[in-house]
Amino acid sequence: MRLVLTSLFIFSEVTVLAEPQPLKLVLPTANHALFTGKPEDFYQFVDRTVKGVTFTVWEGGQFGFVRNPTHLSTGQDIFTKFHEGLDIKPMARDAKGDPLDEILAIAAGEVVHFSTEPGASNYGRYVVIRHNWGEGPFFSLYAHLREVRCSIGQKVEAGTPIGLMGYSGAGIDSRRAHVHLEMTMFLSSRFQTWHDLTNTTPNRHLIYNGLNLTGLDVARLYREHQANPMLSIAAQIKSTEEQFRVSVPGHAEMEILKNYPWLCAEPRLPGSADPMSWQISFSAWGLPVKITPSSTIAPMPAVTWVRPSPIPQYSLTRGIVNGVAGRYSLSASGLQYVQLVTGLFEQIKPATAPGAAVPPPTKPKAKAKPKAKSRPKSKGK
């Protein structure tokens, strides 16, 4: 039997930061239309159906809330489905219509994970590369590959071939062949524990599961990097607009601060006592952009501020926050996500597998409350 290593564990308890280094980013294919003012030549289209009519739109290949157009009772039209990366269309196809584009590493780094099982996730066949620019661990992810052409532990430079473009993964056909690119932050080295508590399906990707990698606005990163090659990725993240804030108990593990100490709004010395609570600022899609120690007691995670909008926050935050007009709370999946970000695993109620025995209710005829599902994350299509 031949064993194939598909993941590399590379985390220590504390990430040691070096002097920030230039990103030196390149695009993952020969398609450079992102910078030529022709986005329709860069982004792969999605099929969109409105009032029974189906058509194609390149806008759905962008990063952000660009899918699932919804008409609200207020008369507003919004997009409620979030896309966490860039879908880049092919430059060349063979006689059968399959793409011929090589996929390239977008920066220097090390291959830490790949999956060659097209049905193992929405990503299909994908590769994860770790980058170290002196500001914590960052990971680029390349999905829907036809072939993986790299190995675990392989050191790569910007432009090193790592695969071949394809259309592996659920919901994609040869018409929409593309590479799905993400640039992400890492959430928890104890992801498997969180997954076991919140999911009843197996985790086939260890700590490199997409739920454990939260994406940056990678198109914005490319544009700002082109304008300023000395761009700091930490500064770019901290300048991201916040959509909501959540307070959590001060004893939370906060591994994210060990990996990305620059997220903390106030410098902290080694050995400092835990604050009474932490206040975490998130972008609309759930990217942590600032963490502030607080003297306010917070026994449980709770929403403390939301950017005002007449639109229900559930539609603006990927379902993390519920409520409208000043009355806000974390949804069940939103609470689980915050617990993953902060390490508050002891507060998680274990998920129940379908068909498993359920303890009897404490009162006659009482109905059991439905179990919360894990945070929906429509990644990679």
Describe the structure.
The strands form 5 sheets. Strands 5, 6, 7, 8, 9, 10, 11, 12 and 13 form a 9-stranded antiparallel sheet that branches. The longest helix has 11 residues, at 332-342. It is globular and about 65 Å long. The chain contains 7 helices and 19 strands. β8 and β9 form a beta hairpin. Residues 355-378 have low confidence and may be disordered. By secondary structure, it is an alpha+beta fold.
For the biggest sheet, the summary is: 9 strands, antiparallel
Number of distinct beta strands: 19
Radius of gyration: 21 Å
The average pLDDT value, as a whole number, equals 89
Helix count from the secondary structure assignment: 7
Strand % is 25-35%
